[in-house]
Design a protein that fits this description.
Blueprint (H helix, E strand, L loop, with lengths): L1 H13 L3 H38 L4 H29 L3 H26 L1 H24 L7 H18 L3 H14 L6 H17 L1
Length: 208
């Protein structure tokens, strides 16, 4: 989805539709964070029970790091959306800076943590690297394409209580809090999936 929207966003910016590009980025963010955030909550709630049941007891250690993995992927999504915005505005330094920051932090934190705590430490380092890179890239990209910060901050704020509920055994309640919060804040609307279909249709038409 991220790769498919990059040419479209670049075209919008090239045509001078800066505000419209920002609205598209907000829609992209809320769709990705709705799906990714639900995955994080589910990982906190059911990874320990489902991973060995699906893959076998040998994969039980994977369940312990799955919540960190899912959270790191959400941070990576934020960074890549910001990079897409910067590339659409022809600011490749944001892409280069985000990648360099992520690599440096993982080498500085992730590798030592992996030696100390194994896979758990490696994913902790990856989470930190992605989170810091996402924060920097988002701040830099919003200077070029001013998409609203609430489309990042509200889903992330909702994740905290939702993941806590999931971690203490109330996974269903955690998902309800997350989904209900997104709907109550009016970040998720009915036309979001229609927007995704329009982007894919435009991409297919351009390819043909």
């Amino acid at each position: 989805l991220l790769a498919s929207t990059a040419p479209f966003l670049s075209g919008e910016m090239a045509a001078g539709r800066r505000a419209e590009t920002a609205r598209w980025l907000e829609r992209l963010l809320v769709i990705l964070l709705a799906v990714g955030g639900a995955g994080v909550v589910a990982a906190f709630a059911w990874a320990e029970a489902l991973v060995p049941r699906i893959f076998g007891a040998a994969f039980q250690p994977v369940a312990a790091v799955l919540p960190l993995t899912a959270t790191a992927l959400v941070a990576a999504v934020l960074a890549h959306v910001a990079v897409n915005a910067a590339l659409a505005a022809r600011r490749p330094r944001v892409y280069i800076g985000s990648a360099a920051l992520r690599l440096a932090l993982f080498w500085a934190v992730g590798l030592p943590a992996a030696r100390l705590w194994g896979a758990w430490g490696a994913w902790l380092g990856a989470l930190l690297a992605h989170a810091v890179a996402a924060a920097w890239a988002t701040a830099a990209a919003r200077r070029e394409v001013p998409y609203r910060a609430r489309f990042v901050l509200v889903p992330l704020g909702l994740l905290l209580p939702s993941c806590w509920l999931a971690a203490v055994g109330w996974g269903g309640a955690g998902l309800l809090v997350y989904a209900g919060g997104l709907l109550a804040s009016r970040l998720v609307q009915r036309d979001e999936w229609q927007t995704v279909r329009r982007v894919w249709r435009a991409r297919r038409e351009k390819a043909t």
